[in-house]
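User: Sequence recovery, please. Input:
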């Protein structure tokens, strides 16, 4: 899948605050003049760029943002290599960054630690007894950036960037694409089979026997499947009338009376957050 905007219309300019743009607004080098724009405007506007930049064999898409991400990744790697190549001042930010990177690359120690670093989280999940416990665990997972049945972000409101708001959306699909759960074609069925085996292996690593791991994996998959069923497809998810729904805390409470939204917002946010009942 290609995610190119028409490059003849939009050219991303990377400029410093002290320099002036030197790139053309329209990149004529990317235009394929052998294609008539009235027949295929996308091919006309991007044809030569596509020809010069094929999708990598290990990828499913390639566009300008991927080029930028690769450039940024390389810059970060260069900085890390420089920091880790020589001794840093004790207690400095550079020393902390070097230690963090080296600890992440120390696969021997990581494998030896096993589940110990996350055992406390697994234990607190196992100890759940009621809906209140479930809410507490969801907040805990979200604060550690794990997936949960719904996502939440705090930032500019989608329809009014001058207003900041909590934005709640569907989450919980490890395979991301709802079609991978719902479509009946051969490709999706193969991916689903491999994903279920992956979940089973994770439960085995946690100490479950094979039969229990199979049941746990199926239960996990069934939850994700139910989330996929109520998720918007790719087309509808781009339609703001389906995505944006203004809700106050009272509205959320009326929709989900068994979920304590006031307590939840206190759990996930800094104490300085001022929660308003208005949108």
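Assistant: Recovered sequence (279 residues):
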């Amino acid at each position: 899948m290609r995610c190119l905007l028409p490059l003849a219309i939009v050219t991303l300019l990377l400029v410093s605050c002290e320099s002036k743009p030197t790139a053309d607004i329209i990149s004529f080098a990317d235009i394929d003049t052998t294609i008539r724009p009235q027949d295929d405007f996308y091919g006309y506007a991007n044809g030569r760029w596509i020809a010069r930049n094929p999708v990598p064999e290990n990828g499913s898409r390639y566009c300008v943002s991927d080029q930028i991400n690769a450039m940024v990744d390389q810059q970060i790697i260069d900085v890390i290599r420089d920091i880790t190549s020589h001794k840093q001042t004790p207690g400095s930010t550079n020393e902390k960054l070097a230690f963090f990177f080296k600890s992440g690359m120390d696969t021997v120690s990581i494998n030896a630690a096993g589940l110990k670093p996350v055992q406390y989280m697994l234990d607190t999940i196992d100890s759940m007894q009621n809906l209140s416990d479930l809410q507490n665990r969801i907040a805990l997972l979200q604060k550690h950036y794990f997936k949960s049945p719904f996502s939440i972000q705090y930032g500019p409101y989608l329809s009014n960037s001058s207003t900041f708001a909590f934005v709640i959306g569907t989450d919980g699909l490890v395979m991301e694409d709802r079609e991978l759960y719902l479509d009946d074609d051969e490709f999706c069925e193969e991916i689903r089979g491999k994903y279920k085996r992956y979940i089973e292996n994770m439960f085995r690593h946690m100490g479950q026997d094979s039969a229990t791991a199979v049941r746990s994996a199926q239960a996990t998959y069934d939850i994700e499947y139910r989330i996929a069923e109520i998720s918007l497809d790719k087309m509808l998810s781009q339609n703001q009338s389906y995505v944006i729904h203004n809700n106050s805390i009272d509205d959320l409470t009326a929709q989900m009376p068994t979920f304590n939204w006031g307590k939840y917002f206190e759990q996930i946010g800094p104490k300085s957050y001022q929660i308003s009942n208005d949108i």
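The beta strands are 150-157, 160-170.
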